[in-house]
Amino acid sequence: MKKPVVDYRQFRLSRLNDPEFAHLKYWLTWLIYFALYFLTENLIPVEKCHPIHSVLDDMIPFCEWFVIPYTMWYLLVFLSLVYFMFYDIDAFKKLSTYIFITQLIAMFVYIVYPSRQDLRPAVFERDNILTRIIGMIYAFDTNTGVFPSLHVGYSLGIASVWIRKKDAPVVWKCCVVVLVILICMAVAFVKQHSVLDIFSALPMCLVAEILTFYVFHRKRESS
Questions:
Q1: Do residues 144 and 46 lie in contact, with contact meaning Cβ atoms separated by under 8 Å?
Q2: Which of 6, 143, 171, 192 gets the most CB atoms within 10 Å of its CB?
């Protein structure tokens, strides 16, 4: 069994600044994101949000089966971060940096250009476990703050870090890429995002890609 690169049994809050554990401070960036998420979700009225819509959205049918890759996104984000935290600290830092950059960009856009989508079906044609899960997602995840899609942003960042990981099996890299493609498709098929939200995530990810791999971490590696 692969041995973790850090023995977290020795961790104490008093040792958070130790070089061995300093990378754990990257988790604190999520507090900033959740604070901004709370503000954008609760302080921006729905009527102030710009509706996002494309003719392609009308051509994409609602398909509850896509809730499977859609919900797998949560596991992909969490398990990738945890795996890297235990077995590849450099990849953990890079993925955390990439995610935080996309969070900041997306939240800035949500504030200066509030957005919403009105694509959700009023009534599900079928009643099954998949549509019930989608109903629960609709209930806790509002239809505002959608342009660009963080679902897409995180996913592309995860794929980028895994592809760059030299010791990861090619089969695993291919599986991650396929899952990320399905996730990006899923946001449109479960009517959580417009196609425009997907495409608008691409320039956001390009910025995150450049800053993460060619600015911040290049400096760290050369220092």
A1: yes
A2: 192
Residues 149 and 193 sit within 8 Å (Cβ to Cβ): yes
pTM for the whole structure: 0.92
Q: Give the integer Cα–Cα distance in Å for 15 and 74.
A: 29
The answer to whether the bond into 61 is cis (omega within 30° of 0) is no
Q: In what helix (H) or strand (E) does residue 116 lie, and over which residues does it extend?
A: strand 115-116
Sign of the dihedral through C-alpha 44, 157, 204, 50? negative
Helix (H) or strand (E) holding 97: helix 89-112
- The string of pLDDT tens digits covering residues 13-62 is 889 999 999 999 999 999 999 999 888 888 888 889 999 999 999 999 99
* Count of CA atoms in the C-beta half-sphere (13 A) of 114: 16
Return d(Cα 40, Cα 131) in angstroms, integer.
27
Are 47 and 112 in contact, with CB atoms under 8 Å apart?
Answer: no
End-to-end CA distance of the chain: 33
